Amino acid sequence: MYKKIVSVILIFSLFLGSSCPIFAKEEEGGTLGIKSKSAVLMDANTGKILYEKNANEKLPPASVTKIMTILLIMEAINNKQISMNDTVTVSSYAANMGGSQLYMEEGEKRSVEELINAAMIESANDACAALAEFLGGSIESFVNMMNEKAKELKMENTNFKNSNGLPEKEHYTSAKDIALMTRALCQYEEIFSISKTWMKDISIGLNNDKKRTLSNTNKLLKMNSKVDGMKTGYTANAGHCISATGKEGSLRLISVILNAPDSKTRFNEANNLLNYGFNTYKSETIINKGAKIEEIDVNKGMKANVDLVAKNGIYRLAKKSDNHKYDKKVTLKSKSFSAPLKKGEVLGKVECFDKNNKKIGETDIIVKSDVKKISLWNHIMKNYENFLLF
Hints:
Blueprint: H1 2-18, E1 38-43, E2 49-53, H2 66-78, E3 87-89, H3 92-95, E4 109-111, H4 112-121, H5 125-136, H6 139-152, H7 175-185, H8 192-195, E5 199-204, E6 210-215, H9 220-223, E7 227-235, E8 239-248, E9 251-260, H10 263-280, E10 281-287, E11 292-299, E12 305-310, E13 314-319, E14 327-332, E15 337-338, E16 346-353, E17 359-367, H11 376-389
Parallel strand pairs: 11-15
Antiparallel strand pairs: 1-2, 1-9, 3-4, 5-6, 7-8, 8-9, 10-13, 11-12, 12-17, 14-16, 16-17
Helix pairs in contact: 2-5, 2-7, 4-5, 5-6
């Protein structure tokens, strides 16, 4: 009787094991053997977590903090508040930051682009402080911007106290929150040309008379050819940390490790998570960003028609062995459209569904190019031309 009960329990256990979802939660490290205190593997396209260990635990992030600083700077560049070529004057506060730095002098003038390179490649605290003061007006104001952005990104276990991650009471975040802000930074494709740079020579000093070679702190760039970012960190309190990202085809993964016991473990575990993700999953592109969805007629326009394109891409994460077919549904705001129409104007949406009619995702469809309203003179000339053709 005892043997029969054990057999039933084993069979039931196997049944449960075979029905597990593909997005695994391995709190104790599981077969991946994660020794670090906290870890997350996230799909950047969908935001789905593929692996987690203590994902929401509040921990000091050290210089991984700089991802949020660079995110705000890239956002400001994208919104044309500032530009890469803008000149930043280094303050006394920034020049005396301590820790990893460029050793810039008070009054030194550097471009935004130079400071981003220094902060991203070599984790320069003084460069980060200079950028924060430039955009925010003061460190305090910039830190408020960081925390507001954290709320916007639904980073629920985060509180920033500075722009660079130097030890400070109540400065904390979590592995999941770091993955969320890394995902947000990944939308700015131009950042990867900086984050994957291994070494870069720059000039520093009041008279540009000193040379400095920036050396990337992210050793994963040499360990995994798919890796192209993002940021490391270390303090005695935070331990060895990293948020790393890599891409294979349309699949971009984000691997976060917090409080690793040593640098080697940090890189090995981040690399193991990425390799696990790339070996197991694929990203199916259903609609590419900017893909043509519809062509509409335009009344009273200088052009008779215009293309509507996808504002964002729609992707589906799947196991490599899976194959899927998808249906698309286009909904326009109106049956007819009249000029003027502006590039980027939202005129509808496209939704994607799987074979079971489950919604995979949706995106706005926008006007690809401006369509100006036809003038009275052009209208007369157009009718005249049509008359001659007739």
